[in-house]
Design a protein that fits this description.
Layout: H1 10-34, E1 46-48, E2 51-64, E3 77-91, E4 95-108, E5 116-130, E6 133-146, E7 165-178, E8 185-198, H2 202-205, E9 210-224, E10 227-240, E11 256-267, E12 273-286, E13 294-308, E14 311-323, E15 330-343, E16 348-362, E17 369-384, E18 387-400, E19 407-419
């Protein structure tokens, strides 16, 4: 990429401000036009015998003032995303079969090297074998990209990275439930295998290829009306294709096994609330004796509170070890998210979301730590049953003990979702 793209001073900065001002002007106009009365698009399926076919597309146009999430020399750009999707479902008395195909095509006005095409193909089969037995099988193939300035390219942008890295995920999963929904006790067994392979710059990205096998068992014990105590065990085995290269060379394999033991509560929808709480212990053991193992508290909390039928508050928080994206042996991640969705009329909905993610890169030579805070506000207007239009504004701020990973960014966008 040329030097002009990597600089955002003077005239380019003024143009970025002008573009944001123009989009904000469109947004204010949109709010004025839409200030009448938003539920999501309600598509009418195309009947194909016993099957339903549902096409849909979302078009999003936005402007960012920090395309590569850099601490300085920011690059601004407008982005247009096209997101078509197609769903096909067969619903029988004891079986439900679904096929889904999605795509996302992104085009940047000021950085065409970052244009991308992502794809997601999936299928799922739900079988009600008996009132006490249910089985779900699913398969997904995902082809995606990593935006420059994120994941492995976060921090000072590498000039050798001329376009986003791409990868392919293949996931196979099975979920079995024993026990009727009204039973005193229920058992859920699940297994999932995800294989990730990068498809660009193979001399560098081959060390990121991995396969993860996730197995878990959950026992639910009814202790009150619509409330269950839960006991859960999880085991995740992660195997990398090759040992790390570069700065991590000599520390040995990143292959590891995670074991998590949870106790908690799960309550189904009541008049106003629903949610789940899991608290427990996670042990992460590396195959390599050169890497430090981890043992610590883990939790997963998710709640929904609906004080009114047209207003909903959501809160979630978790702590878990996740795979590293370039520094250290793994990431110790703590996060929380708070959201409010309100239907002002039968046509207008607003959403406000706040989130915070703390990450410690365990085993990294520079003891990297960072905090990412995100705020987003959006408004959706249901123009017709088959058409939604919206506006959104998002702010992201990252702080770190390493200056090169800190940044601020603003994203302002307009979108429309159409169906039949």
């Amino acid at each position: 990429m040329g030097d002009g793209i990597l600089r955002a001073h003077g005239k380019e900065k003024n143009m970025a401000t002008l573009n944001l001002t123009r989009i904000w002007g469109l947004g204010v106009l949109g709010l004025t036009l839409f200030a009448e009365s938003a539920f999501a698009v309600d598509p009418a399926p195309i009947k194909l015998g016993a099957a339903d076919l549902v096409p849909q597309i979302t078009i999003d146009h936005s402007h960012t003032d920090n395309l590569f999430f850099q601490p300085d020399d920011e690059v601004s750009s407008s982005i247009t995303r096209y997101q078509p999707q197609l769903g096909l479902s067969f619903i029988g008395n004891k079986a439900h079969l679904e096929f889904n195909a999605k795509a996302e095509v992104g085009r940047y006005s000021d950085s065409p090297a970052d244009d991308y095409e992502d794809y997601d193909f999936g299928s799922a089969l739900d079988l009600k074998l008996h009132s006490r037995h249910a089985l779900k099988l699913s398969a997904n193939l995902i082809q995606e990209h990593e935006d420059r300035g994120t994941a492995f390219s976060a921090g000072n942008l590498n000039p050798d990275l001329e376009e986003p890295d791409t990868y392919e995920d293949m996931n196979l999963a099975a979920n079995y439930r024993f026990g009727a929904q009204s039973a005193k006790g229920r058992l859920i067994l699940a297994v999932s295998d995800t294989s990730r392979e990068y498809t660009s710059r193979r001399d560098v990205t081959v060390e990121r290829d991995r396969d993860s096998l996730d197995m878990r068992g959950t026992f639910l014990l009814r202790i009150a009306n619509r409330t269950d105590a839960l006991f859960e065990v999880r085991a995740v085995n992660t195997d990398y294709a090759v040992d790390p290269l570069g700065s991590e060379l000599g520390l040995g394999s990143l292959d590891s096994g995670d074991r998590t033991y949870f106790i908690g509560l799960n309550w189904e929808a009541t008049a106003k609330t629903e949610g789940s709480v899991r608290v427990g212990q996670t042990q992460k053991d590396f195959d390599s004796p050169m890497r430090d193992d981890f043992s610590g508290l883990s939790w997963e909390v998710s709640t929904v509170w609906s004080p009114k039928s047209y207003s909903k508050l959501t809160f979630s928080t978790s702590r878990r070890p996740i795979e590293t994206d370039g520094s250290g042996s793994f990431i110790d991640e703590e996060s929380w998210q708070l959201g409010w969705q309100h239907d002002w009329t039968s046509r207008i909905t607003t959403e406000i979301d706040f989130s915070n993610v703390d990450r410690a890169y365990e085993g990294s030579a520079d003891a990297r730590e960072e905090t990412t805070s995100r705020s987003k506000a959006s408004l959706v207007y249901q123009v017709r049953r088959w058409l939604d239009m919206g506006i959104s504004f998002e702010q992201i701020q990252k702080t770190s003990n390493l200056d090169s990973f800190e940044f601020d960014s603003n994203l302002l966008g307009l979108n429309a979702t159409l169906s039949l």
